[in-house]
Design brief:
single chain, 9-stranded antiparallel β-sheet, 29 strands, mainly beta, Beta-galactosidase, Chain A, domain 5
């Protein structure tokens, strides 16, 4: 594996930001920023062998700092939403920032996506790490965490590790926006999600607490289906968000999700040990100026945010997001790339 580093600008306080290019033996490339532990680029070959950048991003640091959307970033301490922007743990209430209406989203006003992480180069990967102090964005406990990125063959791997000195809650994910054509929108790209159930949302995208079968709804991706086929249906599961923005309960299959582009031939299989995945289809995005002169608009990409269920701290019968003092959190998500001939 070849790993190179270059400057990528500086924050207003003078903190330097860098970009690493990680290239495997087959010529597949990833670009990673220490700002937000962010995936800036994933370049994989299409059916003709032409390298295609399958994630959205920006040409300059300013795009990541000033444009909302969390493109490619590591999200925490708690990815997705927490209802009422507060939670109770061990009999104590913890108020959080209300940065999504009355709710809390993606770790707050300054989540993990807005920090410059420490970087450590390894022979076969790159590790970003930071310490989130007790009370940061309202969360209890000093959290020590790392995110490791590497290529294994034609698979791009993310491994999360975290430890805390006090009981806390934790939900880590990566917020990459995928487009397997590298341009245009994703309406005709195909998804298959191994999930019989999902968690419906209310009109502000917060889970209602219900668990509902996907059968007979726009959420049914158990067979390959174009992203745009049912995205505009008059159903409560897609209406309020103008498309997909909801959590699927994964059934443990490997892979958990497969995405395919009939145009480019690129296939992406996602494997994870997390219980859920949030499908978000960039509804109403843009227009936003992206990399290489592109302008990103409505449904320019799809996100597959492997995760605990949103707001699970308020639903004790759902898989727990509590990380106890002295315990370690470890999780891996893998994106395996291939082509349909």
């Amino acid at each position: 594996m070849k790993l190179t580093k270059r400057p990528f600008g500086a924050l207003e306080n003078g903190t330097a930001v860098h970009c690493w290019t990680m290239e495997n033996e087959h010529g597949l490339r990833a670009e990673l920023l220490d700002y937000g532990a962010t995936i800036r680029s994933l370049q994989v070959p299409d059916r003709y062998g032409v390298l295609t950048d399958v994630v959205l991003g920006y040409d300059t640091l300013e795009g990541y700092v000033k444009t909302p959307g969390y493109l490619g970033a590591t999200i925490g301490r708690f990815a997705n939403r927490i209802g009422g922007a507060s939670f109770e743990l061990n009999g104590k209430s913890y108020p959080l920032a209300k940065n999504n209406g009355v709710n809390h989203l993606h770790g707050g006003l300054r989540g993990f996506d807005k920090y410059v992480w420490d970087a450590h180069e390894e022979a076969d990967g790159l590790v970003f790490s930071r310490v989130s102090p007790d009370g940061e964005e309202g969360y209890p406990g000093t959290l020590t965490l790392s995110v490791r990125f590497c290529w294994k063959g034609d698979s791009f791997c993310i491994h999360y590790h975290a430890e805390t000195d006090q009981d806390t809650i934790l939900n880590l994910t990566n917020h990459s926006y995928f487009n397997l054509n590298g341009k245009g929108d994703v309406q005709k790209q195909l998804l298959k999600i191994h999930a019989d159930l999902f968690t419906p949302n209310d009109d502000v995208c917060l889970p209602t607490g219900e668990i509902r079968p996907v059968s007979g709804t726009a959420m049914d991706f158990r067979r390959f289906k174009a992203i745009g086929q049912d995205a505009d249906n008059d159903e409560d599961c897609v209406r309020a968000s103008r498309g997909y923005d909801a959590n699927f309960i994964l059934d443990g299959s490997i892979p958990a999700v497969t995405a395919r582009s009939p145009e480019s031939g690129i296939v992406m299989q996602v494997t994870t040990d997390q219980p859920g995945v949030q499908l978000y289809t960039a509804n109403g995005m843009g227009p936003v100026s992206g990399k290489n002169g592109q302008v990103y608009g409505h449904r320019a990409a799809f996100c597959l945010e492997t995760q605990h269920y949103p707001d699970c701290i308020h639903h004790p019968d759902w898989p727990s997001c509590i990380l106890r003092a002295g315990e370690a959190f470890d999780s891996t998500t893998v994106y395996a790339f291939s082509v349909d001939e």
